[in-house]
Amino acid sequence: xxxxxxxxxxxxxxxxxxxxxxxxxxxxxxxxxxxxxxxxxxxxxxxxxxxxxxxxxxxxxxxxxxxxxxxxxxxxxxxxxxxxxxxxxxxxxxxxxxxxxxxxxxxxxxxxxxxxxxxxxxxxxxxxxxxxxxxxxxxxxxxxxxxxxxxxxxxxxxxxxxxxxxxxxxxxxxxxxxxxxxxxx
Length: 185
Fold this sequence. Notes:
With 185 residues, this protein is of the alpha+beta class. The protein is 16% helix and 25% strand. The strands form 3 sheets. It has a 5-stranded mixed sheet with strand order 7-6-10-8-9, with helices on one face. A 3-stranded antiparallel sheet has the order 2-1-5, with helices on one face. The radius of gyration is 19 Å and the shape is elongated.
């Protein structure tokens, strides 16, 4: 699921550079596909082959860590699911399991936020491939004062928002704050 989002955002490379949020991507792999980076608010499922009691569903906390059975708090924020999985395997090999087989998958992404000139500003659940236009629809549309030509986006873990032209293909990333400004006549 996480790699599907990365493939969809890479496939739409005709977008302006800000349309594909750097906060939600890892460096390009050899195939040129971007990978999703975990962050606080993401819900993951961990499966440990042959050790059902060690697996389960976990939420990444605000400090970017996940508390796992036997090994305790593991840092997850900023890592891809594969990197996090490798760290867990290494931790379980340190005296807990001989040859751990671990699988990590993202069950739900952290929410995004939309505010400004929309009818229902607030927090909304992220889904793969959601665009700003879709996000506005979730927020029950633009108000009559909305500027429908530009949008301001602040990606997760960034301090400043960036002004971006509003296009139908402009994507939202997990943790983004989208602000629809007021138009002036």
